[in-house]
């Protein structure tokens, strides 16, 4: 298994595509990089 990250350039064109890349936290969607690093950081 591996970690696969993508970076997207702003601004989003058309503007409605911005919704596609929003973070929804526990509801699904994408996780913020800071949150991911906190989850995988060894104790």
TrEMBL record:
Protein name (Swiss-Prot/TrEMBL): HIT domain-containing protein
User: What is the species of this protein?
Assistant: Pinus pinaster (Maritime pine)
What's the source species' lineage?
Eukaryota, Viridiplantae, Streptophyta, Embryophyta, Tracheophyta
């Amino acid at each position: 298994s591996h970690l696969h990250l993508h970076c997207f350039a702003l601004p989003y064109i058309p503007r409605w595509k911005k919704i596609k890349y929003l973070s929804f936290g526990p509801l699904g969607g994408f996780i913020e990089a800071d949150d991911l690093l906190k989850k995988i950081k060894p104790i």
